[in-house]
Amino acid sequence: MRHLVPAISALIIFAACASSKKTAGQLPEQKLAEVSYGSFPSSKMDVFLPANRTPKTPFVIIMHGGAWTIGTKVWGTRTQDSLAAHGIASANIEYRYADDYNTHYPELLKDIDSAIRYCIAHAKEWNTRATNFTMNGESAGAHLALMYGFMSDKKIGAIVTECAPTDFSDTAMLNHYAKADSNILHAIAKMTGARYDPLKPLDPAYAAASPVSHVKNIPTLMFHGTADQLVPFSQATTLEKKLTQKGVTHQLVAMPGAGHDVGFNTPEGRSKIYGEMVEWIWKYGR
Question: pLDDT at residue 262 above 50?
Fold first, then answer.
């Protein structure tokens, strides 16, 4: 009997461990809406946690577009739902808008960092990863995804962008905006914190706000419409050249004839984008 007690105890401990492992492998799907990750009214995110997730499950941070001055996480719902269908965790976030005063791209990046720190703090509770996140965004959100990925001290596993502005030192693009759409030029001024005057030397803030100025070795997948009239296709090829020079794993997927919608407005375009996006995330976001 004396020898039986340790044996029974060992069996109980083994059973408890086995039960724990089984529970972790059979976690139910969770959708958390309007999660507050910070102190600002805009510090909200929707979090999707797939069933049977583990700390090795890819986790994507999604940023909406809107020229840094408008937009909502609702615009990222389609992407979040598509990732969810492939067992990928995600946080679809909102962030402060850039303005003419004290909120520029560094403040927006701080919001993204706060959201990621929240996800890290809840990693054990959610049974999700605490490092190697994947950054994703469209348009202005794509710019922020690149800037955060390249500039953050946290380990980012992969970046996926759609129609990203990458080089604000491109005066040809800025001059086009000055003639065609001054509202875009004003939005860029809010984001950079500096006005553009074609008659004066370009403010260094424009290069500082450009992802091409901060390239880091992170596998980067880019989608861009060849007929994009808002963010020229040349913005994608400029970053592609820089990534090549730096020896960074990357892929530029040109969407023939697509405008700033990148092809999302057609079933074929969506299928191509989400298919390649999911493959990239599972390959590099683990």
Answer: yes
The CATH code of the domain that includes 111 is 3.40.50.1820
Beta bridge partners of 47: 32, 91
CA 46 to chain centre: 14
Given a cut of 70, is residue 19 above it in pLDDT? no
Structural domain of 146? 29-284
12 lies in some domain? no
Record the tokens describing residue 43, joined without a space. Answer: 């510090």
Dihedral (CA of 170, 171, 172, 174) sign: positive
- Structural domain count, the chain: 1
- Position 102 pLDDT exceeds 50: yes
* 77 in a structural domain: yes
Instruction: Indicate whether 15 belongs to any domain.
Output: no
Q: With respect to residue 11, please indicate whether it lies within any of the assigned structural domains.
A: no
- Residue 87: both structure tokens together: 């067992």
- For residue 26, the model assigns a pLDDT of 82
Q: Is the pLDDT assigned to residue 24 strictly greater than 50? A: no
Contact between 193 and 206 under an 8 Å Cβ cutoff? The reply is no
At residue 157, what is the residue type? G
